[in-house]
């Protein structure tokens, strides 16, 4: 059974023919096993996740600024 998935510290690859981005990830199983894999995203998903990640980065920055006051 899968515990969680983490993003590998590698660049995302874009395949213009398939119009897909591929992000290397590692699947973590509850028994401690690790399995390399790839998260494949279409252009709409890439744009959606970019927006969501930008929002998360802004929220983190705002929280840090409040914490330092």
Describe the secondary-structure layout:
Layout: E1 2-7, E2 13-15, E3 20-29, E4 34-41, H1 43-67
Antiparallel strand pairs: 1-3, 2-3, 3-4
Low-pLDDT residue spans: none
SS content category: alpha+beta
Number of helices: 1
Instruction: Give the tally of β-strands.
Output: 4
What is the residue-mean pLDDT, rounded to a whole number?
A: 95
* Through-space gap between termini: 43 Å
Fold and architecture overview:
This protein is an alpha+beta fold. Helices cover 36% and strands 39% of the residues. It has 1 helix and 4 strands, in the order ββββα. The chain has one helix at 43-67, and strands spanning 2-7, 13-15, 20-29, 34-41. Strands 1, 2, 3 and 4 form a 4-stranded antiparallel sheet that branches. Strand 3 (20-29) and strand 4 form a beta hairpin. The radius of gyration is 16 Å and the shape is flat. It starts with a strand and ends with a helix.
Can you describe this structure in just a few lines?
Helices cover 36% and strands 39% of the residues. The chain is of the alpha+beta class and 69 residues long.
Summary keywords:
69 residues, alpha+beta, 4-stranded antiparallel beta sheet, 39% strand, flat
